[in-house]
Design brief:
The chain contains seven helices and eight strands. The chain is α+β, with helices and mostly antiparallel strands and about 180 residues long. Strands 1, 2, 3, 4, 5, 6, 7 and 8 form an eight-stranded antiparallel beta sheet that branches. The protein starts with 8 loop residues before the first strand and ends with a strand.
């Protein structure tokens, strides 16, 4: 009898490329750009400019302020996609969605990904956890014992396509949103 090894990779592998098609056009429309990427992946032909106009028209986005977490997913619903917002998710919730072939929109503290270090630790201590960015989890690669690994992110803030981050660093940034994730069906 052949022994079956558990699957350790879910979703896309990390390859850390820049993509202008991923990079957001405005400094505060990450939630809109991320929804555009999801809609395009579902075969819906939309563009960032149209989605920004839709979001402004419906009051889901305010220029220079961004999108409130409660409004993340409203654009997808406008285009007929059912979404579910979840708080308190964990890495295994992400894994299950990735196993279905779905990238997952999450909220994070961007500084803990882009500039992690002492300054971010102090920010959390004095001001508490703060989520300020939306991006996509495209893949997870676990170590052999499943205790740690790599999380591959599609980040409209940087234009990174499947950039690998240490799982602990990602979890620290994701925790600042109360582990918010948006899934679709």
């Amino acid at each position: 009898m052949k022994e079956s090894l558990p699957q350790k990779q879910f979703g896309l592998p990390g390859y850390d490329e820049y993509s202008e098609a991923v990079h957001q056009g405005l400094p505060d429309d990450c939630a809109i750009k991320t929804q555009e990427l999801l809609l395009r992946g579902l075969g819906i032909d939309v563009n960032e400019s149209q989605l920004v106009a839709d979001a402004i028209e419906h009051g889901w986005y305010t220029p220079s302020q961004g999108t409130l977490e409660a409004n993340v997913g409203k654009l997808m619903e406008l285009y007929g996609i059912d979404v579910t917002q979840t708080h308190g998710a964990n890495i295994y919730h992400l894994m299950l969605e990735l196993a279905k072939g779905h990238p997952v929109l999450v909220g994070v503290d961007s500084g803990e990904l882009w500039n992690s270090g002492f300054e971010e630790t102090v920010e959390d201590m004095f001001w508490g956890p703060r989520s300020d960015h939306a991006l996509l989890v495209a893949g997870i690669e676990f170590d052999d014992d499943f205790s740690s690994g790599i999380v591959n992110l599609i980040d409209p803030g940087t234009g990174d396509l499947c950039k690998p981050y240490d799982m602990d660093q990602f979890l620290d940034a994701w925790n600042d949103s109360d582990n918010f994730m948006l899934t679709f069906s």
